[in-house]
Amino acid sequence: MLLALFISTTFVSCKDDDDPVVDLKLSKSSVEVEEQQTSTIDITSGSDSYKAESEKSAIAIAEIKDKKVIITGVADGKTKVTLIDTKTEQTAEISVTVISKYNAKVLVKAGTFTMGSPEDEEGRYSNEVQHEVTISKDFYISKYEVTNAQYAKFLNEKGNQEEGGRTWLDIKSEYCQIEKDGEVFKAKEGKENYPVIMVSWYGAKAYCEWVGGQLPTEAQWEYAARGGHKATPTIYAGNNTIDDIAWYWENLQNADNDIHEGRGTHIVGTKTANELGIHDMVGNVNEWCNDWHHNYPTEAVTDPVCVDSGTLRVVRGGSLYENARHCRVAYRGNNLPVSRYFLSGIRVVFLA
Hints:
Mean pLDDT: 91
Number of helices: 4
CATH class of the largest domain: Alpha Beta
């Protein structure tokens, strides 16, 4: 679960007008933390005696320690935490919303980077021409790949529509991990938090728009994968040791999820994150991008995206069925937009 705290404070004092009162103040108006992690809010002004009461402790709990309010999310829902200054009787109400862990987003700040790979990089392909790219606006990107449970929820609202001559999800495939029980789409038992597969570019795009986002451009994807403004020079999205960062052909044995030859995807977020805290940017499944596949420019560009025409859509990141060469952060894959394979999944970008 992810905790998003939206804090508004109102102060009430019942002390006599002759008594000096120090206003109760907090350091932050909003914070986000994941389930079982804590978010700390400093009490910047008040007395030295406080208590905190949660309206619904099944959703969030709160405690006071060293003039700090420490709040932990427990379950989906909304509640209020009331901070009480027991000496002055002032109160501050904290509105708390707890949302699903897998809806977590990571902020990627605008910046300039070198896209592509150097000519001496081992495993390099000729279409990875290095060029300078500026991302002019901040954006958010999914911390995790979209899961089967999330995509099933989308299908229950929108249906498995046909676009480009095929349904968004190939639910009839033996590899598909979503099933239809009567009129209800649901993830197969035990596969809820595995990345959705067997989805076309059209189905990926529709999901992103349904949650209020969009598919990443190829430039946004690579910038985020490289760590954005926190980037270090690595081959595999924040790491030069592929087994630390990615599930791929050599380490993807999974008896609990045998998709092909004893190998299969893994639950999202189980490998090391990159510098920005984003998981599975390489390996596990490829990720659809917004662009048509095209040749890179050689000159510097700002916010590039190829959406006008083409035959193949870009996929990035490498997958369970690919080797380390294809999991390099610079590697460029592509596929027909109607293709639905066990190699391709989804990540969402949101405008900041």
